[in-house]
Amino acid sequence: MHVAVIGAGPSGLTAARSCLQGGLRVTVFEQAAEIGGNWVYREEPGHSSVYETTHIISSKRLSQFDDFPMPADWPDYPSHRLLLQYFQRYAEHFGVLAHVRLRHTVTHATPDENGSWRLSYTDDRGVVREACFDALMVANGHHWDPVHPQVPGSFRGRYMHAHDFKRVDDRYRGKRVLVIGAGNSACDIAVETARVAAVTCLSIRRGQWFVPKFMFGMPTDVFAARFHRLPTWLYRLLSELSLRLIQGRYRDYGLPEPRTPLFTQHPTVNSELLYFIRHGEIHPRPGLRRFDGDDVEFVDGRREPFDIVIAATGYQISFPFFDEALICFRGATRIPLYRKLMHPDHPRLYFIGLFQPQGCIWPLADYQARLAVRELRGEYRRPADLRRAIQDELDHPHFRFEPTPRHAVEVDYHRFRRELLAELRAAGAA
Known about the structure:
With 430 residues, this protein is an alpha/beta fold. It has helices spanning 10-21, 80-93, 184-194, 220-225, 232-247, 273-278, 362-376, 386-395, 413-426; strands at residues 2-6, 25-30, 100-102, 105-111, 117-122, 128-133, 135-138, 158-161, 176-180, 199-203, 210-211, 214-215, 218-219, 268-269, 283-285, 288-292, 295-298, 303-305, 308-311, 349-351, 356-357, 410-411.
């Protein structure tokens, strides 16, 4: 059996590793010049990469692969440079590199009548080729196709999406900068620009939960992991009380209070934002009403001039190699996949890493890949009524996540981990 994997980021690498360990042939198609996905830092626009000062926002303990731990002397939150080393070492250790085709771009993927997949791709010399595979694992990521805010009017200054933000340089020095959004990228970028800009403002439409990287002397996710088996209501209550004790009320920072409970929206992990706000380096602003030349008008009627606007407004799920009539999740608020992995109409198609945990994707993507390989080897049987199982999963999310595209693939790290491990145990693989 020959499996194609699209993408050589962390999820694609672990998919390939699982295929090799399961005795399957595998070919990994990667359009970039090296492995690592978003963790390959490049300054040229168009490549969705980390920015220069990026560190991981989940701790190394809950981010590392089970069978390939990060070095003990690495910090709790490694930099993107260390993480790229980690993925390269992982690929070398498990013999994945020999199966990766760099600068190979898949342009079309079509299922055959027998369930196999025909791929059209452009190779590293620009030659268009075709090949047929017994199964397809999609690991192209969901943080590369930017969503831009719909703001009336036009802005005369420099406008960009966080997708193209790489580092702060002299172009930001002494400028008035507006960052749109309240997620991880928005807050990180606001902190970075505030170090050199004359003014940095952060536009937030609605209340958001902000989580520090450390609580009670340990990484926050490690601390929270001690209580994840508590009843949902108690786990949430203790978590909210802990944040209130540490941070106080968000209105004291000039921020809107969240209107929904913790865990119903993806929290922002940042230890510096509130510090910078209280030091007068970042100025919270409400949502935007319109652009007007050099000015931005906010919904409260305030008008301010800006030199640079950065929209950190997220990404949409996109598969450029699928016909939209076949598979399209763009704009969806719920994704109909079993365990965020299996499609009801295509039994040899698997999505690896297409979920957003309140934690790290990689170790859970590893479990998904192992499960897919077990099924291909005939050692696991998916639910007989897969559509019903998918609907049950959609009707019973881990938390009552907000019904928005941003939360379409949201899961709770620990519950999703238990679910995937239960499936692997059923296949005799855990």
